[in-house]
Amino acid sequence: MPIPPDVRERARGFLPAGAEIRYIFPASWNESQFFVFAVTEATVTVLVNRLWSRTRPKGVWHVFPRGVRIGPVDTHLIPTFHLGGRTFEVDDEYVSVINACDAELQGAASLPPDPLPDL
Asked: What pTM does this model have?
């Protein structure tokens, strides 16, 4: 399920002026603390939500430079990834978003070759 527009707007409030959200996805820690990851051109901003809420960011937990890799995501049982000394859980549907974030760091070299280059 995509991130609702109201959550995107709340997340924008914690980002620098003019920052454009390129990727955004939710994750949890210990199934009790919920976060929203907002990836911009310059940073990976991890927003902490209100207690037991998945959609109400209340502050910035940590800001990482955009060069940091979020994955790889361990997809055994519950998908998890490690960042900032914590292990986060993410829904299956957001694994591709994390992979896209990391692939963007490597540029065109990480993309598969075009199967039909003459078209």
From this structure: 0.86
pLDDT (mean) for 74-86? 93
| Single-letter residue type at 6 | D
Q: Which one, of 24, 16, 7, lies nearest residue 70 by Cα?
A: 24
pLDDT band at 80 (very low <50, low <70, confident <90, very high): very high
Instruction: Collect contacts of 20-25 with beta carbons under 8 A, ≥24 apart.
Output: 22/101, 22/104, 23/97, 23/100, 23/101, 25/90, 25/94, 25/97, 25/98
- The backbone region for 23, taken as left when phi is positive above 0, alpha when psi lies in -120 to 50, beta otherwise, is beta
Q: Are 51 and 59 in contact (CB under 8 A)?
A: no
